[in-house]
Design goal:
Number of strands: 12
CATH architecture: Alpha-Beta Barrel
Shape: globular
Number of domains: 1
Order of helices and strands: EHEHEEHHEHHEHEHHEHEEHEE
Structural class: alpha/beta
Largest sheet: 8 strands, parallel
CATH superfamily: Aldolase class I
Oligomer: single chain
CATH class: Alpha Beta
CATH topology: TIM Barrel
Distance between the termini: 39 Å
Strand order of the largest sheet: 7-6-5-4-3-2-1-8
Strand content: 15-25%
Helix content: 25-40%
Number of helices: 11
Radius of gyration: 21 Å
Length: 339
């Protein structure tokens, strides 16, 4: 899986946006400080990354990727012809071209964070009214990030949201994530463990009533116990993520910075974390096959002299904000200490 932040620009100023956090790209630079591309340079740059990595799926994000809609008009048909499944993740602030709906391998996901009283304040100018206008006659997925104020509003709030978007003719699926904080973050959006339990209990019941709610078996419970670290996360291992200069890796996952993995609410990460423990034959699990495949891939890349490995695939790497592990030092008398 390949994720590309195709632009540093966005007309929104959403609270809690990980892409514009100072630590998103490791603390040495920020998304807004990077040089990004337009026109032929962006089109060719994105297609070159796809040819190099040969992913099964590409996510085009930002910033607001629809700011580069003219370039997307050329990128998306090319990816479709290459047999690549692609998702454009947008706020819905810019109209979605109708002719994109003819592309067989494209999905457009529109982020709608709660009912209007929460969403419109957090994501203006991408308000409900504007989204309705810009998705009219299109087919989209809705991406919903659940935050703590929504949980505190009660189980009826969650059902009102799903009921509303399930009834919209433009919506194919409703895709759910939980708010994913950075380490040591204290914010109103961050869920507590009891909030995650409530959501995990509510979502399967809603899925039985509202068929557009996308909730693979086991994923709701996976929200309660996410991966412990990037090393424990299949999504982190199976994805490569680039920022707007098409060179800088976003590490250790799409969130960048220092994500609090124990509080992760990423729906893809949760789904893969659940799938990891599914048994294939006897004691053999999906996770065993994935780890073996990754080891083979690493060896193959080294034999080819490929030096573009993401840091998280290289042994001993630490990420922004991580401290070095303590080292045990033993003296001649057998006493030990730490440094």
């Amino acid at each position: 899986m390949l994720s590309i932040e195709i632009t540093r620009e966005c007309p929104l100023s959403c609270s809690g946006c990980y892409a514009y956090d100072d630590g998103h790209l490791g603390g040495k630079t920020t998304l807004r400080d990077l040089s990004d591309f337009r026109g032929d340079a962006l089109v060719q740059g994105v297609l070159e990354l796809v040819r190099r990595h040969r992913p099964m799926h590409v996510s085009l994000v930002g910033g607001e990727p629809m700011i580069r809609n003219r370039e997307l008009d050329r990128i998306l048909p090319a990816l479709d012809e290459m047999g690549i499944f692609t998702m454009v993740v947008t706020s819905g602030v810019i109209p979605i071209p109708e002719h994109w709906m003819k592309l067989r391998r494209l999905r457009v996901a529109v982020s709608v964070d709660g009912l209007p009283e929460h969403h419109d304040e957090r994501r203006k100018p991408a308000t409900y009214e504007r989204i309705f206008k810009n998705i009219a006659g299109r087919q989209i997925n809705v991406h919903w990030v659940i935050t703590r104020p929504m949980v505190l509003a009660g189980a009826s709030y969650l059902e009102q949201y799903v009921d509303f978007w399930n009834a919209r003719p433009e919506v194919d699926h409703i895709w759910v994530s939980l708010y994913s904080p950075q380490k040591n973050e204290e914010s109103a959006q961050r869920l507590r463990q009891e909030d995650r339990e409530l959501v995990a209990d509510a979502l399967p019941r809603l899925r039985r009533t509202y068929p557009k709610l996308l909730l693979p078996a086991g994923v709701a419970r996976a929200f309660v116990k996410p991966p412990e670290s990037p090393e424990d996360c299949l999504f982190s291992k199976l994805s490569t993520n680039y920022s707007a200069d098409l060179r800088t890796h976003v590490e250790p996952c799409v969130f960048g910075g220092v994500p609090d993995c124990k509080q992760c609410g990423c729906s893809i990460s949760s789904a893969l974390h659940w799938v990891r423990d599914v048994k294939v034959v006897g004691p053999l699990k999906v996770g065993h096959l994935v780890r073996a495949s990754l080891r083979v891939g690493l060896v193959a890349k080294k034999l080819r002299g490929d030096s573009t490995l993401p840091n998280r695939w290289q042994p001993g790497q630490r990420f922004y904000g991580q401290r070095a592990p303590l080292v045990q030092i033993q003296n001649g008398t057998g006493a030990s200490g730490c440094s």
